[in-house]
Write a structure and sequence with these properties.
Blueprint: H1 8-38, H2 42-49, H3 73-83, H4 89-115, E1 124-128, H5 143-153, E2 157-161, H6 181-186, E3 189-192, H7 201-207, E4 211-213, E5 228-230
Parallel strand pairs: 1-2, 1-3, 3-4, 4-5
Helix pairs in contact: 1-4, 4-5
Amino acid sequence: MTGVQTCALPILLPQQGRVDRRCEEYICHEIALMCNRLGIDVWEVIEAASTKPFGFMPFLPGPGLGGHCIPIDPYYLAWKLKTLDYKARFIELAGEINTSMPFHVVSIISDALNERQKSVKGSKIFVLGVSYKKDIGDTRESPALDIIKLLIQKGAVISYNDPFVPGLSDYNDLKNIEIEENVIREADCILITTDHIIYDYEWIVDKAQLVIDTRNATKGVNDGTGKVIKL
């Protein structure tokens, strides 16, 4: 236990960690966006950079930033600083990039369907995982929900599976559907938004027409050429 000189310090200390994490996610998301424009696999970049024996800690991109604190709490700090005539630019920039990722995922889906002479409107999209991170049932600020909302607005026919989330309060008409062969085969697109360990990704890729993988969950799948499109 460490003593501090002001009661403001214990309030700011957890914000330090949350701001760090928020900005780390911003950097890896921005790199993912740049790699997409350059036609480079961001996961190969991260894997190659991870071979450096020192001075590098890998952070993984995804469909967005979720959870009850990291996406939200730094904004309170930024607001407080505005009252003191200071703009926390990096916090706001990080938030801008992180919240843009669901739109980026929807763009990837749209482009992939277009290449197959399909539109988002009317396409059956089966979402795998709606919690904000794997192997838990917490959907607070989950980017999967933002993606679902955007796809519904574009006219997609959405269904989902998540063994940890039996229902979605904001989408009562969406049912948690069991993963069966006919469900996978009939979907125009399988969207992996949460990489739960329980999923058999090799089997899913084998049966699917198209897989959009936002978590590099299909890394170990050998027969996904032409079917799998990554973030």
